[in-house]
Structure formats: C-alpha cells, structure tokens
Amino acid sequence: MTDPCMFCRIVSGEIPVQIVDQTAGAIAFPDISPQAPVHVLVIPKKHIDSLAAGIDEETLGHLLSFAAAVAMTEGIAESGYRTVINTGNDGGQTVGHLHVHLLGGRAMKWPPG
C-alpha cells in the first residue's frame, strides 16, 4: 500500500493546516507558497487525482461554489479573484489531488502562463 497523498493527509488531520473554511465535502486552506495576497487552496475531501480523472458534476459544482463562498469570507469577492485548476504535468499540477487555487487581493494580469 502506498502512502496517501499530501492533501489526503491534510484532510485526515495528519498534516495540520490553518483551515480557512470547510464543508462536508471540501476544505480550504492557505497555499504554502502564495502567489497573491490571498492564495487559498480548495480541495475535495475525497481523493480525486485531477480534473481529468472524470470528476462528477455534483462534486465539481460543490467545489466551485465553495470556492466562491471562500472568496466572500476572504474579502475578495467584490474586487475580483481568479480560480485556477492545474491538470497534469504540462498544466502545472504538482500535487496529484484535484485542487482549486483561489487567488486575489491584487489585480491579476493576462496571460497567466
């Protein structure tokens, strides 16, 4: 048996984090390498490798709705924010567990990559 991924270990409480908010199906916590004044990761509590893993609409909808709610509690909903889901190596995914980057607190530039 392989060790659970880092995000699964966060969900289980094995790795402590500052929890920004959580629901029965998702959890939000600060990114350890923030790229904006507000940089929160929003992850499903159940392990899903990536967006390409065939995530169901209910889970994806909950994850994005929860990210919008976290943006409100973090005070960035009015001014605007960016949500990013990196998928696979070329997409910049570094942890093999689906996660949404919620970034805000400053103006975002385009193109991002």
Structural notes for this entry:
This protein is α+β, with helices and mostly antiparallel strands and 113 residues long. It is 21% helix and 20% strand. It has a five-stranded antiparallel β-sheet with strand order 1-2-3-5-4, covered by helices on one side. A hairpin with a 3-residue loop joins strand 1 (21-22) and strand 2. The longest helix has 17 residues, at 57-73. The model has no long low-confidence stretch (mean pLDDT 94).
Task: Please provide the ordered H/E string of secondary-structure elements.
Answer: HEEEHEE
Helix content: 10-25%
Poorly predicted sequence stretches spanning 5 or more consecutive residues: none
What's the helix count?
Answer: 2
Q: Which structural class is indicated by helix and strand composition?
A: alpha+beta
Q: What proportion strand? A: 15-25%
Radius of gyration: 14 Å
Shape: globular
| Strand line-up in the sheet with most strands | 1-2-3-5-4
What is the averaged pLDDT score?
94
Number of strands: 5
Q: Report the biggest beta sheet as strand number plus sense, adding barrel if it closes.
A: 5 strands, antiparallel
Terminal-residue CA separation: 36 Å
Tag the structure with descriptive keywords.
single chain; 113 residues; alpha+beta; 2 helices; 20% strand
Task: Produce a short descriptive summary.
The chain has about 110 residues and is α+β, with helices and mostly antiparallel strands.
